[in-house]
TrEMBL record:
Organism, as annotated: Paenibacillus allorhizoplanae
Pfam families found in the cross-reference section: PTS-HPr
Gene3D superfamilies assigned to the protein according to its UniProt record, in alphabetical order: HPr-like
Residues of the HPr domain: 3-71
Domain of life per record: Bacteria
Name recorded for this polypeptide: HPr domain-containing protein
Alphabetized InterPro entries for the sequence: HPr-like, HPr-like_sf
Length: 84
């Protein structure tokens, strides 16, 4: 894993842990809690598309922050993205 991926993992994890909302990414048939740095470290690769599932009391803010971070690190979000 290169430096960019490590930075992305840390930034996503730290941002997610600031929210009360549940933040999960779906990769294929796997669902990963973004607040788990270990889950992210074995899942996050640039050549995949991710689907975010965010719900909770601060979900609107969490959605915007996660979208910005994924874009910043050139991580693709599923085009048919829906947020709960």
């Amino acid at each position: 894993m290169g430096g960019l991926e490590t930075k992305a993992i840390v930034e996503i994890n730290q941002a997610a842990n600031q929210f009360q909302s549940s933040i999960v990414i779906q990769v294929g048939t796997r669902f990963i809690d973004v607040k788990s740095i270990l889950g992210l470290s074995v899942t996050l690769f640039n050549n995949q598309a991710y689907k975010l599932d965010i719900h909770g009391p601060d979900e609107k803010e969490a959605i915007e922050v996660m979208k910005r971070i994924f874009e910043k690190h050139d991580l693709k979000l599923d085009r048919g993205q829906t947020y709960n």
